[in-house]
């Protein structure tokens, strides 16, 4: 691998680690300084490695440069605080230890602490996700904009406002205490769940970004699972859900990134290792009295890893959806439930239930109605596939719907 391939790879894996450690060290009010130091480290790598070649230990080289840049920054602030403006309080005192700890243990702790710091109830959910992508996942502005199907200017403004709020609140980069961790953990799981869904259900044309979103959500959730403070049933249920869903990622799209319906998926492409891992964590999630929405969703996802098309399977899934909707209603969940309903009660019953949702303008809703109608009413099937095509947000989505139109003639 040459430097032009290695540096982007290392940026994705190491930028977030360096940023998290520096933020844990400096405090949230210096969020942009931490990002700047991390970015300058990779810029120097790009300049240096182009001429001198890739060092024997590229990660160690990055950490060494980041430490030196951080020390230089601290020394500059120290000089300012102690000699230039002694009356001005800064983040550094003359006797402060300036060591930057980039050990594996401290990196993990710093990323977990950053995760809780970012997931502040005062921030809009989309800002929490954006910050997680930028600081903890190393996503660039272009990639974040692509994931959200919006412009770079919108993302820049959103991140700026979020950083300003965190800077003003001076949110501590620490684990919440026992009295707060439950409420804050709920925010963290919501952010990670939505981050995963941004990849799993994304309408972006960029298949690489979509998979990376899922991978990063799972990586951050693993940090929670592996921490004694957060290794609890609800976290295991959330991770089990991600494992089951991710196990079928390779089978959900064809080589042109077009959607493949569940019943047409190639089971041999399902990742059995992820399915086993999901089953293990779902079992761990059951070892408590608390039942969350993640428990229901993970169990539904587990049943979808059993390809056998039996009445028992779909009855179980339908009942789980019913319980999930009683606990937490969402139009997307209600729409997903109707697929199970069609298996249990037939297409006609499913169509009646689907049309009651009135999700007009949602391309997935019209595509699903088109699928249901395709066996009983060609005209209505074509009508819904045309609507889905017109509401699709990407070229891939429009192309997929056009294929359905062509198939029906």
What does the model show?
Helix content is 71%, strand content 0%. The chain has 409 residues and is mainly alpha-helical. The longest helix is centred in the first third of the chain and has 27 residues, at 58-84. It is globular and about 80 Å long. The chain starts with a helix and ends with a helix.
Largest sheet: none
N- to C-terminal separation? 48 Å
How do the helices and strands follow one another from N- to C-terminus?
Answer: HHHHHHHHHHHHHHHHHHH
How much β-strand is present in the residues? Answer: under 5%
- Any low-confidence stretches, pLDDT <50, length ≥5? 92-96
The structural class is mainly alpha
What's the total number of strands? 0
Number of helical stretches of at least 4 residues: 19
> Whole-number average pLDDT?
88
The 3D shape can be described as: globular
Rg result = 24 Å
Secondary-structure map:
Layout: H1 3-26, H2 31-52, H3 58-84, H4 104-118, H5 125-136, H6 141-147, H7 152-169, H8 181-200, H9 207-226, H10 233-246, H11 249-252, H12 272-285, H13 293-304, H14 311-327, H15 331-345, H16 347-357, H17 363-373, H18 378-391, H19 395-408
Helix pairs in contact: 1-2, 1-3, 1-4, 2-3, 4-5, 5-7, 5-8, 6-7, 8-9, 8-10, 9-10, 10-12, 10-13, 12-13, 13-14, 14-15, 15-16, 16-17, 17-18, 18-19
Short description:
With 409 residues, the protein is mainly alpha-helical. It is built from 19 helices and no strands.
């Amino acid at each position: 691998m040459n430097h032009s391939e290695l540096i982007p790879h290392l940026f994705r894996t190491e930028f977030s680690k360096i940023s998290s450690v520096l933020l844990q060290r400096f405090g949230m009010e210096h969020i942009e300084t931490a990002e700047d130091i991390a970015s300058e480290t990779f810029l120097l790598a790009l300049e240096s490695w182009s001429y001198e070649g890739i060092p024997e230990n590229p990660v160690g080289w990055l950490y060494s440069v980041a430490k030196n840049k951080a020390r230089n920054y601290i020394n500059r602030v120290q000089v300012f605080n102690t000699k230039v403006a002694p009356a001005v309080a800064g983040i550094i005192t003359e006797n402060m230890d300036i060591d930057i700890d980039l050990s594996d243990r401290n990196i993990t702790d710093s990323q977990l602490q950053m995760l809780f710091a970012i997931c502040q109830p005062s921030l809009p959910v989309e800002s929490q996700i954006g910050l997680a992508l930028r600081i903890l996942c190393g996503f660039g502005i272009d990639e974040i904009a692509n994931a959200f199907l919006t412009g770079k200017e919108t993302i820049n403004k959103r991140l700026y406002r979020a950083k300003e709020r965190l800077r003003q609140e001076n949110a501590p980069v620490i684990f919440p205490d026992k009295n707060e961790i439950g409420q804050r953990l709920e925010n963290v799981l919501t952010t990670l769940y939505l981050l995963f869904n941004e990849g799993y259900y994304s309408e972006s044309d960029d298949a690489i970004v979509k998979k990376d979103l899922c991978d990063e959500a799972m990586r951050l959730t693993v940090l929670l699972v592996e921490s004694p403070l957060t290794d609890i049933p609800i976290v295991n249920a959330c991770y089990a859900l991600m494992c089951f869903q991710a196990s079928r990622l390779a089978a959900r799209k064809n080589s042109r990134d077009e959607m493949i319906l569940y019943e047409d998926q190639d089971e041999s492409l399902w990742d059995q290792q992820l399915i086993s891992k999901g089953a293990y964590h779902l079992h761990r999630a059951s070892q408590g009295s608390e039942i969350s929405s993640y428990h229901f969703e993970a169990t539904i996802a587990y049943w979808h890893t059993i390809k056998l098309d039996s009445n028992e399977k779909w009855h179980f899934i339908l009942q789980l959806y019913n319980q999930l909707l009683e606990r937490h209603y969402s139009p997307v969940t209600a729409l997903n439930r109707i697929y199970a309903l069609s298996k249990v009660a037939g297409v006609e019953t499913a169509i009646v239930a689907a049309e009651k949702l009135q999700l007009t303008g949602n391309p997935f809703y019209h595509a699903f109605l088109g699928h249901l109608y395709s066996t009983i009413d060609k005209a209505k099937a074509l009508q819904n596939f045309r609507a889905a095509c017109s509401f699709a947000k990407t070229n891939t989505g429009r192309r997929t719907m056009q294929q359905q139109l062509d198939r029906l003639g």
